[in-house]
Amino acid sequence: MSVTNWVLEAIEKSYSKGITIREIQRYIDEHHYEELAIFTLETELQSLEKKNRIRLENERYFKAKQVSKEDAFKKLFGD
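Given the sequence above, the corresponding structure tokens read:
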């Protein structure tokens, strides 16, 4: 598994309450036995945020809202 998958898994397991970067670090350490540096996690979180896969609110990360197929086609090809 990659760091991206681990980060997304940790965020998904937080459900609707969100998760801090330290909680993500702890989750990965406890469930995948990898000690990742904060810098590595920050880089990955910024990348996922740019791709609109996650969002940041009050220092907590949440899974981004899913877009319907129709909205995705409109965004991709216009009206």
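The chain has one domain: 3-77. Try to locate this feature in the token string yourself.
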